Amino acid sequence: MVYDLERTKGVLWLENFVMLALTGGEGPEDSLASFLTSFIRQGQLRIVSEMSLEQLEVMRRLVPGFVEHFQIISVSEMDTPTSLRIFEYFNQYTNRTININFSQKALELSYVLLDRFVRYESFPGKAIRFLQTCANQAFLANRRHLDVPDVIGYFSQQTGIPDFLLRDDLLIDNESLHRFFLARIKGQNHVIDKICSIIKVFKAGLNDPNKPVATLLFAGPTGVGKTATAKAISEYFFGIGQKYQPLIRLDMSEFQHPGQIYRMIGSQGKLVQHVREKPFSVILLDEIEKAHPLIFDALLTVLDEGMLIDDLGRLADFRNTIIIMTSNLGGTQRSSLGFKSYQGHDFEADIRAFFKPEFYNRIDVFLIFNPLDEITIRAITLKELNEVENRDGIKQRGLKLF
Q1: How many Å apart are CA 37 and CA 158, to the nearest integer?
Q2: pLDDT digits (tens, 9 = 90+) for 367-382
Q3: I need a surface site. Which of 24, 180, 273, 402 has the fewest CB within 10 A?
Q4: Is-cis flag, bond preceding 124, omega within 30?
Q5: 307-309 and 315-317: which strand pairing?
Q6: Count of CB atoms within 10 A of residue 282's CB?
């Protein structure tokens, strides 16, 4: 390949530059990057690539001196006026090629939505990709003109965020909001009230844009509805048009040793991979107190800055996630299933004593789940039985469970 490129005076384009340091021998010193160094130095091979500043530092660390053989050109993100002009050029292109036209307000709204929610990519590339997707779907649906509702609809499909949380002209119906959670969460009305407040803050755009949407800690024994609440939040916030529930659950008892941290936040870690694939989702860290303290230290960056960079310099953006941690601290000894009263016990004091202040202080909302009384237990049982009764295998046989 090197000799063919030299003979034809061709240029090799590499999309993933860091892989040069990871491909080849057992270590970076035996990698493809090291092998190609002499060809680059002698002018036999010309390479063009792209990378983030973080990836550039990774390459300098893995293969010292390699990137110094390249001319490094810094490319800044386009400003708003320039990006909007690019949108207009793209609109002219789609109008000319497939007869699809975006209104000016639709183009401007695309910029606003992408600027607020898709900060892990840059303009104009992220906008062109989004507008291209909108145009393709409109073409298949035999639509020729796209306006504000269309752009919101397509963005909602991609992110799972309901349109009324994206549109300034639509208000949240407080009654239907509470009804949604009351149908899914039993016996925890104070929790529902707090969740509704978080949703209203998000709707108003008042949440900190440089942190996760919210960081919550649910305390209480097993069986009081902590996981069910996390599922309900993910369904409401990010569940529109999604095939799979936008939630990842990590059992933190699986991360009790220092070396296991990379299984969570390393380049192949479960959490990092999930957030890259589904940046709009709920992250449920179950029984957080069972994780190794190094996990808490690593999570500080996520809770404080809303971002995490893995060992290969790749960014995982948590600013569109809701992080929910559950804890049984103080509740296990008193009630194994949450059916007995623990009234008067200071769960928050247990949590505060367990975590370092810098970790505890980054939790936005601390919620203690009530024990379940007989009426609530009956309501939950009937709800679960009703869901089972509505399954095809039961309905087709005409069976009744109660």
Answers
A1: 42
A2: 999 988 888 888 888 8
A3: 402
A4: yes
A5: antiparallel
A6: 27
Structural contact between residues 196 and 174, judged by C-beta atoms closer than 8 angstroms: yes
Mean pLDDT of 32-61: 91
Average pLDDT over residues 237-255: 90
Q: Radius of gyration over alpha carbons of the chain, in Å?
A: 26
- Report whether pLDDT(24) > 90: no
Question: Of 116-125, 240-249, 346-355, which has the strongest mean pLDDT?
Answer: 116-125
User: Distance between CA 314 and CA 305 in Å, rounded?
Assistant: 15
Contact indicator for 327, 351 with CB cutoff of 8 Å: yes
Give burial (CB, 10 Å; 0-12/13-18/19+) of 137. Answer: middle
Residues 201 and 330 sit within 8 Å (Cβ to Cβ) = no
Tokens in use for 1?
């390949």
Q: What is the pLDDT of residue 251?
A: 96
The residue type at 133: T
In the beta sheet, which residues pair with residue 31?
24
Locate the DSSP E strands across 35-178. 47-49, 101-102, 145-146
Q: Which residues of 302-317 are buried (b: 16+ CB within 10 A; e: fewer)?
A: bbbebbbbbebbbbbb
SS3 string, 21-49, reads: HHCECCCHHHEHHHHHHHHHHCCCCCEEE
3-state helix, strand, coil in the chain (%, to 5): 50, 10, 40
Residues making up the chain, counted from first to last: 402
Strand 145-146 versus strand 101-102 pairing type: parallel
Q: What is the pTM of this model?
A: 0.86
C-alpha to C-alpha distance for 306 and 304, rounded to whole angstroms: 6
Three-state DSSP class for 217? Answer: strand
